Every structure is written in C-alpha cells, then in structure tokens.
Amino acid sequence: MNDSSWGAPPSAGFRGPGGQGTSPGYGWVAAPSSAGPAHEVGEAAQTRPMPTVPHAGGGDSGEAADRDRGAARLSGPLFRDEREPQPGPRQPAGRQPTPPDPASADGGVRGTGAGQGKKSAGRNLRAAIGVGIGLGVIIVASLFIYKPVFVGVVAVAVVVGLWELTSRLAERKDIRVPLVPLAVGGVAMIVAGYVRGAQGAVVAVALTALAVLVWRMTEPPDNYLRDVTAGVFAAFYVPFLATFVALMLDTEDGPWRVLTFLLLTVVSDTGAYAVGWRFGKHPLAPRISPGKTREGLLGAVTFAMVAGALCMQYLIDDGVWWQGLLLGFAVAVSATLGDLGESMIKRDLGIKDMGKLLPGHGGIMDRLDSLLPTAPVVWLLLVIFVGGG
C-alpha cells in the first residue's frame, strides 16, 4: 500500500480560480475546531466545489468575522507571489495511518517466497514438522517390520482421503458421492494390488466403479449422472493411484522401492518450498496456486535429481546413479503437477484445505496430492530400469 492511499489526496480540496473571490489568498484550511463549523474562506477541505460568496465588508472584515465565530483559520500564504507550501497526504480525522502490508508488496504471493516483502511460511511450521516426523516414523516402521501393516496404513489413508474428498464435494457442490462402495472398493484395490498384482488391482477398480453405479440407484434419479461421474473420478484419483504403492511393495526389494518413492517426493516438495520461499519471484501458475514459483520448481527438480541419484545408487538393487537423475526429474514434475491438480479442485470448491486432521498440513488429501500421481511414475520407471522384481 503506498502513501497516497492512506488519506484523501491534495486534489480533494477546492481551489477557486485565480482572481475570483475577495480573499487575497487561497490556501489549505486546517481541520475545523469544535467551536464551530468552518466557513468557505480560502481553500476549504471539502470533497466537491462550493461557490464562494463575497464578504460584505471586504477580505479583512470577513476574516475577522470568521475568527469571531470560531471558524477555521487560514493556513495559506497571504499574498499571491509567496510560495505556497505543498501539502502532504491528508489523513481523515480520527483515523491513524495504516502501515503497508508486507504481503501486499508481492501481490499476495506467499508460501514459496514470490515477492520482495517479509516472507511468511503460510502455515504452522512447528506443528507441520512434528506431524511429518510422526507420520514418517509410523510409515518407515511398518514398511520394514511387517509389510502387511504398511498396506493397512495405506488403506486407512485412502479411506480418510475419500471421506475428505466426498465430504467437500457434498458441502460445496451438493454432489452426493456414495462413500461406502468407494471405501470398500478402495481397500479392495490396495489389497488386490499387493496380493494379486496389477491384474487384481484392475479387477477391483472395475468392480468399484460398478458398485458406485448400482449404489446410487437406491436414491432419486436427479443428478444421477453427475454423482456417479464424481464417484468414478474419486475411485481413480485416490485408491487406484495409491494401488501403485502396493505394486512397488510386492517385490523382493519392495520396501526400498517404496522408501525411494517417499523420499524423492518429500525431497521434491521440500526443495520447492525452501528455494521458492527464499528466492521465489516469478509465479509458476498464479491463476491456480499463487504461492508456487518457477524458482521453487527449479529447487524441486535440483533436490529431487540429487536425491534420486543417491537412492538409485545405494538403495535400489542394480540401480545406477544416472537413472536416479531421470527418476528425480520425473518425480519433481509429477509431484508439482499433482499439487497443482489438487489446487485446481480446491479452487473450484472454494476451500483452502481438504480437511483439518493434520495440524500444520490440513487434511490427508493435502498430503497425498503430490504422492498419488507420483506413485505410478516411480513404479513404471523402476520397472523399466531394474525390472519388476
């Protein structure tokens, strides 16, 4: 906010044309005192022109009469050849100047650091870090101690994510997606992918879509097509994409593949956030997510490629470092697109977060947004580079 927006500009007052009126000088009038209203002597602080009425006794007697009535005193020069002081920005009476908002200097682009003003993280970092560490401990422990427990963790995350998505659709768009067949079918997809592989997952997806169509038939036919379309979309968006995590796990070095997938996605998000917050100036997609910057995307790519090279070289059997560079680049792109995709959904729904379950993060879907589209990308590239295991 610049200085000119703090109060009325100098042009708000009326200046009579030169040579008109009886007063010898036309200057700015100070704020009226409580003794009485200001009379139209000189240049009164008003919002529209007012006609000047000559005083009966001339300029001096008019000024004396004004003083007797307690009117505002003149503040301009008494003679026309004197230099008139330039008035500064005027502040309405009783209002304190509002200091400029640092966030407004960068056009409201926050979070990843676009702009020059004081930068804000846009969330509770302490809570976000604590929740992230807690989730990481649970995931890693279940992943390496007993793989079926990790499958259960993925299934729970899918069900909660479906609940958040369908709840927001009902609240904001009045779209009634049947949650029960989606939740049951989502768990079936994860388990079938882990036990029966890709073929089992495909069958589970087909049966889930059919269950959504049939379940919705128990309600009135109004908006049937809209509701079942949203249901099929939810089935593919959340549980189907999560099934590729179970497919990665169902290999000899499955835990290390899943760990690589998780590490690269987290490193990509962290690199985008850190670099964008510190150096971000150019918005990446301002109409979708104003907080994301091109510098942040470059940070995501750099961090993910370095982490990918290390993971492929030391964590994946028969992996080579240059394969990790390609894998890291692909993860950075897919994670960014996934984040932008969910931002589009939230903008369409008019919400900031999908839920409030995770302090500092939002909802489960706000953490799955970059993981879900990245899972099939990592699964496919690992199959190409080192085989299906």
Going across the biggest sheet, name each strand in turn.
1-2
User: SSE order in H/E notation?
Assistant: HHHHHHHEEHHHH
Unreliable runs, pLDDT <50, ≥5 residues? 1-48, 53-85, 97-118
Oligomer classification: single chain
Class inferred from helices and paired strands? mainly alpha
- What portion of the residues fall into strands of 2 or more residues? under 5%
What is the average per-residue confidence, as pLDDT, rounded to a whole number? 78
Helix tally equals 11
Fraction of residues in helix: 55-70%
Tell me the Rg in angstroms: 33 Å
Distance N terminus to C terminus?
Answer: 60 Å
| CA-based shape | globular
Q: Characterize the biggest β-sheet.
A: 2 strands, antiparallel
Could you give the count of β-strands? 2
Would you kindly provide a written description of the structure presented here, covering whatever features stand out?
- The chain is mostly helical and 389 residues long.
- The chain is built from eleven helices and two strands, in the order αααααααββαααα.
- It has a two-stranded antiparallel ribbon with strand order 1-2.
